């Protein structure tokens, strides 16, 4: 088996997709113009990583109520501090930061809708 994507039912899908594309460097691969607006996003390698959709009749994720340790999207960052500052200037909020012995720098933020995002600057990338 090969991982294909992870799907989330979210609010404000069009604004959120725009924010992810503009500020996280994701690319829209498929986007449906009618509800539930299924949108598949790929990372800079071209690999689809996430599907966002908005089904009002189903429970919507309220990420503000969830601890980042229970759910977060993690992104490779070559400059975690600079990316943290850049994303906060665009509406993300700071949660916590960890610098581990050996040089790993982890930054936890929340996007403007509360979804936890982690920036991972590692000396040896996974």
TrEMBL record:
Residues 2-122 form the VOC domain. Coiled coil: none annotated. Gene3D superfamilies: 2,3-Dihydroxybiphenyl 1,2-Dioxygenase, domain 1. This is VOC family protein. InterPro entries: Glyas_Bleomycin-R_OHBP_Dase (IPR029068), Glyas_Fos-R_dOase_dom (IPR004360), VOC_core (IPR037523). SUPFAM superfamilies: Glyoxalase/Bleomycin resistance protein/Dihydroxybiphenyl dioxygenase (SSF54593).
């Amino acid at each position: 088996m090969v991982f294909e994507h992870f799907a989330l039912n979210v609010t404000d899908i069009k604004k959120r997709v725009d924010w992810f594309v503009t500020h996280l460097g994701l690319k829209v691969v498929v986007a449906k113009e009618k509800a539930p607006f299924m949108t598949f996003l790929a990372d800079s390698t071209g690999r689809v990583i996430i599907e966002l959709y908005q089904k009002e009749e189903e429970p919507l994720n309220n990420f503000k109520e969830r601890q980042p340790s229970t759910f977060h999207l993690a992104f490779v960052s070559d400059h975690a501090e600079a990316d943290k500052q850049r994303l906060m200037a665009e509406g993300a909020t700071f949660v916590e930061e960890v610098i581990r012995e050996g040089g790993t720098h982890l930054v936890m933020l929340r996007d403007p809708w509360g979804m936890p995002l982690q920036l991972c600057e590692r000396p040896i990338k996974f």
